[in-house]
Design brief:
about 400 residues, alpha/beta, Aspartate Aminotransferase, domain 1, Aspartate Aminotransferase, domain 2, 2 domains, seven-stranded mixed beta sheet, about 15% strand, globular
C-alpha cells in the first residue's frame, strides 16, 4: 500500500503553556554583547550573577575524595544522603537557631534551588490556582507557575515600600484563590532585605489565608546592614506554611555544582520529596559529600569582597548622579533610570557605547521597567574602569552625567 504520508513535513508544536512563558531574559543582551565583541570592544560584564571567585579548596578536596568512593557512583538517595541532611540540619541550627530535631521540620536535597523552586507549583497547585509572583522577581517563579497550569498574579515590589511585599493591599478575590506566594529576601534583583517583624507579619498572613510561603533564601548571608542572616522558619508557626530553599551557589561560590536543600514542615517536605522521586534521581552523592563539608564550615570572610566591590560601585555611580537604590543585600545593585527611559534601550546603549553590560530591569517583570541591575561579580579594578568609562560616555546627545540630571531620553 502506498504511503500517503511519504515526503510530508510534520511539525509538532510546543504546548500552549510553553508559549505563555516570557522571553528569555538574557537572549537580547547576549546578541548585543556578541555585536560589541565583533567591534573589538572589551566588555565589563555586570550582567549574570555568577561568582567569579573559585569554590573553596577544602570543598574541592572533599569532592575529590568523595568521587573516588565506588558506592557514591550508584544512584543517590532522592531525598538526600543521611550525612547531607544532617549537615543541612546543622546549618539551620547554627546559622538561624532553627532546631529541626523533634520540632516538625524536615529537610531534603535539591539539584540547586532553581530546580527545587520550579517544582513547587507542579507539586502543590491545581489548575487555575493563583500563585503570587514578586514583580520584579526571579523569572523562574512566574515560569514555574505557568508550566504547572496555575495563574501567576503580580505581587508588586515598590521602591516606596522598600521593595517589600504589601500582601494586605491585594484584592480579596486574589487572596481567596491564592495557593502560594514566592518570596526572595535578600532580594534579587532589588537587593532589599526584610526585618524579622515584617517576616512575622507575613507568616501571620499566610496562616490566616492558608497560603504556602515559598521562600527562596539563596542570598541569606549576603547582607550589608549588620544584621545576621534570617529564615522564615525562625518565626513560630511558620513550618506549617513554609518551604524554604537554601543554596550553596552564592554562599560558597558553587553555582555549577547544583546542590541545595529545602526545609519546612514535615508534611510539606514529605510531599515535596515524594513528588520529586517521579522526576529525578537526586544529587550525585559525591557532590552531597562536598556540600556537607561546606555546610559545616565557617562562612565568615566570603562576603568582604562583595562589600568592597559594592562600596566602589555605589560611590562611583552616586558620584555620577546615578539614582542608586539604598538596599542592603545580595550581590546586586539596583539602579533607577531617569524619566521614562526604557531599561532595554539603556542597556543596549551601555554595551555599544561603553562596553558595559548590565541587566535591564524589565527582564524581571513590568515593575522592573526603568531600572537596571549591576552584579558584583567583577574585580574592583574593573569596577573602577567601568566608572571611568561612564564618566566619559555620551548618551542621547548628552554627556552621561548631564543626561542623568535631565532625565530625558
Amino acid at each position: 500500500m502506498k504511503d500517503r504520508n511519504k515526503g510530508r513535513r510534520v511539525v509538532i508544536s510546543a504546548s500552549q503553556r510553553l508559549s505563555m512563558l516570557p522571553p528569555y531574559l538574557f537572549a537580547e543582551i547576549d546578541r548585543q554583547k556578541e555585536a560589541a565583541k565583533q567591534k573589538g570592544l572589551e566588555l565589563i560584564d555586570f550582567g549574570v550573577g555568577d561568582p567569579d571567585r573559585p569554590t573553596p579548596e577544602y570543598v574541592v578536596e572533599a569532592a575529590r575524595e568523595a568521587v573516588a568512593v565506588p558506592s557514591y557512583h550508584r544512584y543517590p538517595k532522592g531525598e538526600g544522603s543521611d550525612f547531607f541532611k544532617e549537615a543541612a540540619r546543622y546549618w539551620m541550627k547554627k546559622q538561624f537557631g532553627v532546631d529541626t530535631a523533634g520540632n516538625g521540620i524536615s529537610v531534603g536535597a535539591v539539584i540547586g534551588t532553581k530546580e527545587g523552586l520550579a517544582h513547587v507549583p507542579v507539586f502543590f497547585c491545581n489548575a487555575g490556582d493563583v500563585v503570587l509572583v514578586p514583580n520584579p522577581g526571579y523569572p523562574v517563579y512566574r515560569g514555574s507557575a505557568i508550566l504547572a497550569g496555575a495563574v501567576p498574579v503580580d505581587l508588586p515590589l515598590l521602591r516606596e515600600n522598600g521593595f517589600a511585599p504589601d500582601l494586605d493591599s491585594l484584592a480579596p478575590e486574589v487572596v481567596s484563590g491564592a495557593r502560594m506566594v514566592f518570596l526572595n529576601y535578600p532580594n534579587n534583583p532589588t537587593g532589599a532585605v526584610l526585618t524579622m517583624e515584617r517576616m512575622e507579619r507575613i507568616v501571620e498572613w499566610a496562616r490566616r489565608e492558608d497560603v504556602l510561603i515559598v521562600s527562596d533564601n539563596s542570598y541569606s548571608h549576603i547582607r550589608f546592614d549588620g544584621r545576621p542572616p534570617a529564615s522564615f522558619l525562625q518565626v513560630p508557626g511558620a513550618a506549617d506554611v513554609c518551604l524554604e530553599f537554601h543554596s550553596l551557589s552564592k554562599t560558597f561560590n558553587m553555582t555549577g555544582w547544583r546542590v541545595g536543600f529545602v526545609a519546612g514542615g514535615d508534611n510539606l517536605v514529605s510531599i515535596f520529596n515524594g513528588a520529586k522521586e517521579n522526576i529525578d534521581s537526586g544529587v550525585f552523592t559525591a557532590v552531597q559529600k562536598a556540600a556537607a563539608v561546606a555546610l559545616k564550615s565557617d562562612v565568615t570572610g566570603f562576603f568582604d569582597v562583595y562589600a568592597g566591590r559594592r562600596k566602589v560601585l555605589v560611590e562611583g555611580l552616586k558620584g555620577l548622579d546615578w539614582d542608586v537604590c539604598d538596599t542592603q543585600g545580595t550581590i546586586f545593585v539596583w539602579v533607577k533610570l531617569p524619566g521614562d527611559t526604557r531599561a532595554m534601550t539603556f542597556a543596549r546603549k551601555l554595551i555599544s557605547h561603553a562596553g558595559i553590560v548590565v541587566t535591564p530591569g524589565s527582564g524581571f517583570g513590568s515593575y522592573g521597567e526603568g531600572y537596571v541591575r549591576f552584579a558584583l561579580t567583577v574585580p574592583e579594578e574593573d569596577i573602577h574602569k567601568a566608572v571611568g568609562r561612564l564618566q566619559q560616555m555620551e548618551l542621547f546627545g548628552h554627556r552621561l552625567k548631564t543626561w542623568l540630571k535631565k532625565g530625558t531620553r
